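Take a look at this chain, tokens included, and explain the fold to me:
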Amino acid sequence: MLDQYLPILIFMGLAAVLGLALFTIGWFAGPRRPDAQKLSPYECGFEAFEDARMRFDVRYYLVAIIFVVFDLEIAFFFPWAVSLRETGTFGLLAMLVFALLLVVALVYDYRKGALEWD
């Protein structure tokens, strides 16, 4: 039974060795010319203009929640599509209910103005 995991372990070992080798080569061969501009803190390409502990707009969190919801939706749709023949009508109805709940969440977010950027 452990023979089935041997190719996976070999692949993970080769990936780790290759990753470490490339990182080491880049570390030793790369230029090191730090200056004041490279070492200065920045925020999305802009100079830091306020305190790092400032409050964010609630819309930022709403968009993040929308992203997580629909990212999880895709993660659930792939296994469902693969196993649809085995789950049959019950699986289809369960996924339709799941998709309906996600549509309700999207409509709620739309009505709350989470998708509008002023």
